[in-house]
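User: Predict the structure for this protein chain, please.
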Amino acid sequence: MWDMSFYKNKKILITGHTGFKGAWMCQLLLMAGADVTGYALEAPTQPALFDLCQLSDQMHSVIGDIRDLAHLKEVFAACQPEIVIHMAAQPLVRESYKNPVHTYETNVMGTVNVLECVRTTASVKSFLNVTTDKVYLNKEWEWGYRENEELNGFDPYSNSKSCSELVTCSYKNSFFTGTDVAISTARAGNVIGGGDFAADRIIPDCIRAAQAGQDIIVRNPYSTRPYEHVLEPVVAYLMIAQAQYEDQKYAGNYNVGPNDSDCLITGELVSLFCRKWNEKTGSSIRWIDRYDGGPHEASFLKLDCSRLRRTFGWTPTWNVETTIEKIVEWFDVYFQNGDISTCMKQQILDFCK
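Assistant: Here is the predicted structure, written as structure tokens:
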């Protein structure tokens, strides 16, 4: 059901557009000919993919905090979006232990503010709240969580995203029933890809170590995660937003994750990265296990994506091996001072074939 041409001239507002996932979404929508407005804080990393690709020159980029309701309302009034995709968040588990109040303010009240703007902006027809696979009460079992499982994330980040889901459900029931606004949430797995420079994420940690010619330190190599290329959820989000725009029967909650065969333990993922990086660059990097006794994180997490498959005929496009190859390709271009924007666009075209 995904149709890139649907987005031509559509007015789209994206929160969190300066982040890693937001930059990939903006680039794809610009290639589709959409009229894109972004609302977010300054890019959260240095360097930042959004800045490297000079995306602010190609769209209406507004720097603002989603906790600032008055400013957010001004932006909604100015751009009159038809589709709103909410991705702005404090996205890191470890950071949420350090700054829980900020995490809850951003991830819960930020969602309230965005939904309040949707409620009071007549142009909006489709709203998608992007959350996480970590919203579920994690029972450390071996099968994937379904959309009807209990929401009760353990740590402040995961729990705040559970709350964001509940806020969305309440607003949907209280204010959007019987209206022409379709509301959905999407719960994605662990997203990886070229251009991610964040702290406390496994692929950026690998890249920083490879760049420095050092061993990769893996603090929790035996945790199982649903790793997927960033384009998997980005395209799924746009597919859901389009489908519910055209027919509200598609509104709901959706998991977006890889096939079970691509749910790897972190050590396996890093081993695959080392092999692909060494093949590409002639290096000889390796990783070492150095558990640091950090705060609690789930050790086993998988998603059941049957609903997305059944509803849309969706399947993942790239397996984990192809995903790592694309990541290595992107960062090799980056380190060679090549044209990363062209590389990014080509990867989007390859994916969308």
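The mean pLDDT is 94.
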